[in-house]
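BUG: 3D viewer hangs when loading the predicted structure for this chain

Environment: internal workstation, default settings.
Expected: structure renders.
Actual: progress bar stalls at 90%.

Input used:
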Amino acid sequence: MVLSLRRVAGLVVVVSSVSSAACEKSEGTGATPSASASAALTPAAKGSCDRVSTMSVCSEYAPAQLAKDAAVLTAQCTKLGGTYVAAGCPNTAVLGSCTLGTGEVRTFYASGGAAYDAARAAKECSSLYSGTWKPF
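Structure tokens produced before the viewer hung:
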């Protein structure tokens, strides 16, 4: 009888371990829920702060920048009157872009609340942000 109880206890441990491991896996990805949740909070894809309607600019963040500071960047975007989007910046009425030392790419627009012209955008990029201007 003791032997059969040990077998049952051992079987319960094995089934419990297998069941627990299966529950930790996400369907088809092999990732644990905690890793999935972490990936959702630490995006590896594009993210941007769209302020075209108010400031005629949109800031697109590098994946490394998002992975490190996603919560801060989204909060700052809201404070600046923008909308955080888990995608790149809009591509309508683009004048050019300014790549900053942080990896952020700030896109300037000929539309919106403070519409730019190409010369003003290029000057602001180089003098105010010490960035590299790339015309569209």
